[in-house]
Write a structure and sequence with these properties.
The complex is a heterodimer. By secondary structure, chain A is mainly beta. In chain A, the strands form two sheets. In chain A, strands 2, 4, 5, 9, 10 and 11 form a six-stranded mixed beta sheet that branches. Chain A has a five-stranded antiparallel beta sheet with strand order 1-3-8-7-6, with no helix packed on it. In chain A, strand 6 and strand 7 form a beta hairpin. Chain A is globular and about 45 Å long. Chain B is mainly beta. Chain B is about 0% helix and about 50% strand. Chain B contains no helices and eleven strands. The radius of gyration of chain B is 13 Å and the shape is globular. The termini of chain B are far apart. Chains A and B meet through strand 4, strand 5, strand 9 and strand 10 of A and strand 4, strand 5, strand 9 and strand 10 of B.
Amino acid sequence: SQQGEEDPQALSIQEGENATMNCSYKTSINNLQWYRQNSGRGLVHLILIRSNEREKHSGRLRVTLDTSKKSSSLLITASRAADTASYFCATDAADSWGKLQFGAGTQVVVTP
Amino acid sequence: EPEVTQTPSHQVTQMGQEVILRCVPISNHLYFYWYRQILGQKVEFLVSFYNNEISEKSEIFDDQFSVERPDGSNFTLKIRSTKLEDSAMYFCASRLQDTSYEQYFGPGTRLTVT
C-alpha cells in the first residue's frame, strides 16, 4: 500500500539553523501534505503541494516535490524553539476521496 | 478562525461498551474524515464521508464502527463493542470541497479501553 515515509526519524538542531526532512512514497498521488503535531495534540496543516507543482513556499517553510523519484522535502528555515514538534507527510492518492496516508513522522527538537 | 472541535477530549470505557465520539467540522466543509493514532504509531485513515454517505473506508473500519451526521453540524463515530486494541487517539478532519484538498484536523479524543 502507498505510504509516506519520513527521513530522518529524529532531528535535533539549534535555534536559527535550518531543518530539512524528507518523505518518500510509493504510488501516484494527487497531492502531498505536511502536518505538524505537538506532543499529544492535534495535527496542524502546514502546506499542500499538488502533483503538478515542484516547489512551494509558505513563510519559513519550503516544500519540494519530485514525482519521478516519488519524494518530497520540507525545509524549515531559521528554526525557533516553537518549531519543536513531530512533522508528518501525508499522501492523497489520485484515485481516493481524500484518504490521507501518513508516514511515521520526523521528530524535530530545536534547542535555544 | 474556524476550527474542527471534538468531544470529549478523553474517554475511558470498559471493553465491550459502546462509545460515541463527537466532532463538529468546520461549518461550510463538505467532506468529513475519521483517523486514529495508536500511541507511538502512524496516523491511520478510518473512513471518509460525503453527501451523507461513506465514500471510502479502511480495513480497520469493520462492522463495529459506524459514522453518522445526525444534523447539520455534528459528525459522530460510534464503536459498538470496544476492544482493548481500540485504545487510540481519534481525530476528526474536514475538507472544504472537491477542488480544495487541505484537511483540517480536530484536537482529537483519546480513547482508553480497559
